[in-house]
Amino acid sequence: MENHFEGRSKDELKGVSLLGNQEVKYKTQYDPSILEVFDNKHIENDYFVKFNCPEFTSLCPMTGQPDFATIYISYIPSVKMVESKSLKLYLFSFRNHGDFHEDCVNKIMKDLIKLMDPKYIEVWGKFTPRGGISIDPYCNYGKTDTMFEGMAKDRLFQHDMYPETVDNR
């Protein structure tokens, strides 16, 4: 079988089944089991991977009305990395999930920590206004007893210090 994924062996892609699969079903109920990982080929380097997800939707648990957001996920990988198509399908699984904005971003972060055990991760939800107010929850995590634990505290304390420069709407 020809390898269409340049630079990756079959062993490195073991467990990655969604990428390139044209028959994937989109789940509309929250399902973290969709998430897949692959090995970080550059474990000796500390670097950020950033996902911008401008089409996130979930439901208000009280009214059932849709909530729309851009979800920003940034992480510094350790051994494992999240596969992007599985992340897209995972985020889509929130489509009919009822949770408050703060719960959604914390749930996303915790699921990704459980999946890949990153050195550092942050998730920022920039929800569109409903009823004249927008809610933009931010959460982060740095691996305990590493420099990334301190980094998480610093980034949390400095987060959104100049919100007037942030424009996603």
UniProtKB/TrEMBL annotation:
Any GO CC annotation of this UniProt entry: cytoplasm
NADP keyword on record: yes
UniProt-listed Enzyme Commission number(s): 1.7.1.13
One term of GO molecular function: preQ1 synthase activity
Example GO BP: tRNA queuosine(34) biosynthetic process
PANTHER family in the record: NADPH-DEPENDENT 7-CYANO-7-DEAZAGUANINE REDUCTASE
Function according to Swiss-Prot or TrEMBL: Catalyzes the NADPH-dependent reduction of 7-cyano-7-deazaguanine (preQ0) to 7-aminomethyl-7-deazaguanine (preQ1).
Protein's recorded name: NADPH-dependent 7-cyano-7-deazaguanine reductase
Organism name: Clostridium vincentii
